[in-house]
Amino acid sequence: MGDLIQPRVLKGFRDVLPDQEAARRKILETIEEVCTTFGFVPIDTPALEYSEVLLGKGGGETDKQVYQFSDHGGRDVALRFDLTVPFARYMAAHSRELYLPFKRYHFGKVYRGENTQKGRYREFMQCDFDCVGVDSPAADMEILLMMHRAFTQLGIRGVEIRLSHRGIFNRFLDHLGVRENSVEILRSVDKLKKIGREKTLDLLRSLVSAEQAESILSFITPRDSNAETLAAMEDLAGGPGEDSGRVSTILSWADSLGLGSSFILDPSITRGLDYYTGIVYETFLQEIPEIGSVCSGGRYNNLAGLYTKEQLPGVGSSIGLDRLVAALEELGRLEDQSSAADVIVFCMDDSLMAQYLGVAQAFRDAGFRAEVYPENRKLGPQFSYAEKKHIPLGIILGEEEHSRGTLQLRDLRQRQSIPGLSLEEALARATELIS
Amino acid sequence: MGDLIQPRVLKGFRDVLPDQEAARRKILETIEEVCTTFGFVPIDTPALEYSEVLLGKGGGETDKQVYQFSDHGGRDVALRFDLTVPFARYMAAHSRELYLPFKRYHFGKVYRGENTQKGRYREFMQCDFDCVGVDSPAADMEILLMMHRAFTQLGIRGVEIRLSHRGIFNRFLDHLGVRENSVEILRSVDKLKKIGREKTLDLLRSLVSAEQAESILSFITPRDSNAETLAAMEDLAGGPGEDSGRVSTILSWADSLGLGSSFILDPSITRGLDYYTGIVYETFLQEIPEIGSVCSGGRYNNLAGLYTKEQLPGVGSSIGLDRLVAALEELGRLEDQSSAADVIVFCMDDSLMAQYLGVAQAFRDAGFRAEVYPENRKLGPQFSYAEKKHIPLGIILGEEEHSRGTLQLRDLRQRQSIPGLSLEEALARATELIS
Lengths: 435, 435
What we know:
Two copies of one chain form a homodimer. By secondary structure, the first copy, chain A, is an alpha+beta fold. Chain A has helices at 18-37, 51-55, 84-93, 137-153, 166-176, 182-190, 192-205, 210-219, 226-236, 242-256, 321-330, 353-365, 379-388, 399-404, 423-434; strands at residues 41-42, 48-50, 68-70, 76-79, 102-111, 123-132, 159-165, 263-265, 279-285, 295-300, 314-320, 343-345, 370-372, 393-396, 407-411, 416-421. Chain A starts with 17 loop residues before the first helix and ends with a helix.
């Protein structure tokens, strides 16, 4: 054997240990259940695609972050960097097999060779859900309700879904006569939460007149209530429109569903340079707002324009699993390490292994998660193994129990044993102890 | 807007449409449930790794199939081509955080630039489960039981787990005096199921004497019962040993658990050139044996030797999801397109949208999957949408129902309506209709 190879992972990539992976899978399961509860259907797409498909024919700011290479056949290929572009391609490719409105979810890993400072990863999981093929406030609302339900189901209270509408913002910039600077203005406004009012004002003053900068800052400032904010936005944008009417409708539906307090009209939400055209939103956790948005999205008027002439309006959201996990960890909601099994059958004597396997099977058939310690060792290491896996119950079946035809059930949390049980009794007691 | 980009996917890669993706996710869920039922814990590893880590310092036959490239930082990286090598690296990297025996499962996509003829994919999903850190027949047995339970839970009857033991095979080759040809002999034996006895014999005759070739063919031929097969194997291998004793133990446990008929001792199973050293197995479906093995694996004596001096024996299995899905499709077990929602609230009047959202929410709170049709269109297209998603129940709430404060529940399968219901009554009737 030669030198050992160092078992390292690439910078920005991670191994996930069992306790955390179990927690991650539970979160994914919860989000998936919310998606199916709203009638959304799953799809899948390849992680590797033609570069042209993912990046278009030009090249943008993202390109440097993309894992792009030449495959065996000399094809220019790349790893996907989000789930939106593959979804757009998918809709164009399968329009004849699909139906509209198409409500889909897609959970998958994406790849970005970003700077790994400040806890960014180069491989991370996104959970996207979109409703495509219809431009209606009801579709917007369903996405917002899904976001709300996901956080509720995850046991997170104090969720703030902060929303706005790009259409009102654009009308306001028109009205102010600064529409041609909109890209830079959006970029500055987007920094408000990070750099504060004064610095944002400085940035804006370098783009427009001092008076206009003040006006922009006024526009993006929420008032005391959603109604007042909306009135101020309409006022500064030159009056009401379809856009502000839609926002009003959405907020009134939220009220009528008893969820009004979770939805905050916040005109500083613009989703920066993204391709949104209608409502836009970000989600903050009141307990740790500093972690930033854990779920965001908005309405776009043309998903798949790169690939098809069919105009596909839609609305969607994306949950970044990794930031959400970080948030839950910080809130101490990931601590409760769940058990890897309900029952462990300890090995006291190799010659009784057939019995151990049978007992474990009986527990499984009764709906328990059960495992057998697969070799005869001292009880100390076996107990310590059970503890590492947070297993609450053990079965002890040695020479003595075997000769009497009984089992001993041990509550590993309380360190108490119940001897002299038949298998049926052990199953019954286990049910009591675990439920 | 310039020319459209063709929304194509790479050869050997696939989009998955919703019905099939839903079925795939159900299968994965079932396999995962089996893993957790046996106390196995989940892990995750990156899809992209250092090439050296995945390929070792030399280069083997697989290398040409590996997606390997240079990343932004000039690192030589590759997409994983299986889950075993990353698992070996993981065990070496985290030995201090983990405990032994370590029972883990890992489901993930792997990448091989293989020839795409005969329905092979370049991106495919593997479901691996292994028990590492112990060399005992009980650990072997648990993996075999998991395989059996997975297929039972998937509703597949007539599963044949065909197993053998590499140790007995090696002893037999020693005894026959042809051990130095073992690589070529294994390769020939491995082809038996594909090319038949005569051609296998021809291949063997080119490697060893005619008499020896006959002896090898005799060795790999199952007899009328497992006991007779084992006796013949022991006889040809020069007598009983720990290896054949272990096989005997495993088969007797299978009998005592009432599963004996699913386990067939088949000495032609060798897993070819793989790194196995103990028991080896493949799984065939009696209804479609021609699809080949849908789950295979075995025992190895040193998982992570490339990365650590710690000797890690283990036993594991791998289910290829794609071949399994193909098998289930062929058996017609994937046809039953499951519903994407239980209830759809049709949109009869945009001004009643607040009511529709409320009704859907009430259904969700009662445990139904419910969606709202998000805009006012004729009922025809709305019904056809519901049909495409296999949704069994609809709610009709128009002007008339609204003025009376009632709902109409429609059984979309039977095309029957139940008018004049309160929300509570509709929930109760829906429960009856769906359960």
